[in-house]
Amino acid sequence: MATKLFDVHNHAQRQWAQVHGDRTRITLPQTRCMCVMGTSPEDWAWVQSMVEQLSAPLSTATASMDHESHDSPPHLVPAFGVHPWRIERMLGDKDCAALHPVPASVVMTPPEIRAQLTTMSWYQRLAQLLDSHPHAIVGEIGLDKSARNRDTGSVYPFAAQTAVFRVQWELAIAKQRPVSIHCVKAGSYLLQFIQTLAKDWQRVKKLHRARPSSSSTAAALRAHANTLLPPKIMLHSYSGSPDILRQLFQLPVDIASRLYASFSEAVNRRSPQLPERIHAVPLDRLLIETDENSLDDIDQPMEAILHEVAKVRDLRPSELAPALFANACRFYF
Ligand SMILES: [Zn+2]
């Protein structure tokens, strides 16, 4: 494989945990850059150890890559977050059941829910990890109305998901980090939430309308958007309605310009709606990923999804790959 690729979302720390962090027991993939997504506090430690022991400096990721050989260390971006499937176990049944939902129609998490969550040890650890890893992003966070807890057979409690999602979203804003979002059968919540933020942005725009338009107005509106949304937002392995994507990308530019969507072989390939989803994303906002758990399973699925997206967009893989790589670098750095 000669193409430079960036796997924007995987869980290779699971293999790293299995080999107990022994780098002699892993084979590095040809895919030179990737983001390793933590999903729970136990998982974060493996992301941290993998990135600290295996990664080349991220500051050189874009500059020096053309001169690197295939056996030089890869560039691993760490991601720390709580996945919707991990909330119940992390909080315990009692704390989980005590959480009230955060409606999609409110701009900020209500103070009592914020206070409940942000004083917990997992939240404080997450904030510390972001501080100690300046390139780290917030992920994998999200909303899932479909998956079921294998032990109980019930879907994961959505009220708690909204609360934990929203405080992590706000942490990403506070630390100015991108987010990677898992969203399954919950696209209407996410769309309504981002539309709520867009309305708040429009409200501030109206306040400025009375004054003559100037560059300071544009700067003030961008600054307001920075208080509402993280700097970059990725919908990872997006499997929802193409119409939701179209609506999101049509929002005002201060909001829509932050959005990216990523597709994978593992999650998206078999869906008949994949071409329509790919077409709903502007070319400069498309990303590809594996969502795999091992460095052994990166290169082949990356090639496969690259070819799939190229076919849909009527481009040669060799033309598309540099554009996708540039998108990923813009997202992460
Ligand atoms: Zn994932």
UniProtKB/TrEMBL annotation:
Pfam families: TatD_DNase. InterPro entries: Metal_Hydrolase (IPR032466), Metallo-hydrolase/TatD-type (IPR053044), TatD-like (IPR001130). Gene3D superfamilies: Metal-dependent hydrolases. SUPFAM superfamilies: Metallo-dependent hydrolases (SSF51556). Transmembrane segments: none annotated. GO terms for molecular function: hydrolase activity, acting on ester bonds. It comes from the Eukaryota. PANTHER family: CUT9-INTERACTING PROTEIN SCN1 (PTHR47345:SF1). This is Cut9-interacting protein scn1.
